[in-house]
Amino acid sequence: MGFRPTPEIRSSLEAAAKKNCRSVSKEVEARLDRSFLNDKAQRDALGGDDIYSLLKLLGAAAALIKSQTGKSWGDWKTAVAIRAAWKSLIAEASPKLPKKWEAAIKRQSRPSKPLPEPPEAPQPLGVLALSSDEKAYPAKVAAYDAALAEHEEQKSKYARAEQARWTATDAMMEELQEAVGIGERVLGLLPERTE
Fold first, then answer.
1. I need a surface site. Which of 1, 16, 62, 155 has the fewest CB within 10 A?
2. Both ends of the chain: CA-CA distance in Å?
3. Nearest-angstrom CA–CA distance, 61 and 87
């Protein structure tokens, strides 16, 4: 491998090699090796290769925005633009929600289908009811009672299904809150940030 350093770099390498009692070639190799180890340590400290790549992308986006606005992060418009870009980039890079989570979120934000209306009670017989109405009335009452019992059963099934739906949704939202809580607790472990 051919390597032609500038005179300043060559001079620094020769001085370091002499100080470390090794050849210039070994000094170059040791420094390269250390740089790779430092790079890996830095990647690991920043969350691994996937997060490191995302952070580089976020940094590149911020640099582009700053070059377009001509201002730093301290400028509120530049900061808003950077945050918007970061939000989009993080959303694109994040894993997609599992289907069951998408369904739970949709269920939570959408009202349930309404419960069917109860049946209408038959009108009581008037004083001047005809004899044919008198004979049909008990059948009307029996039909109403059956329809009412069916309605109560549907209402009970509906209530159980709603309770199961909300119990499942609540459990999933608790799991989501737990994940958010982990992120919030980690923020407390980071060094204090200046405003």
1. 1
2. 48
3. 11
The 10s digit of each residue's pLDDT in 158-194 is 888 778 877 877 887 787 777 777 766 766 666 665 5
Question: Distance (Å, rounded) from C-alpha 61 to C-alpha 86?
Answer: 8
Over residues 9-40, the pLDDT tens digits come to 889 989 999 998 999 888 888 888 888 777 88
Dihedral angle computed from the Cα positions of residues 138, 143, 145 and 146, in that order, rounded to the nearest 10 degrees: 140
Residue-level length of the chain: 195
Structural domain boundaries of the chain? Answer: 1-45, 48-94, 97-195
SS3 category, 177: helix
Supply 173's token pair: 């939202």
Asked whether 144 and 121 are in contact (CB, 8 A), the reply is yes
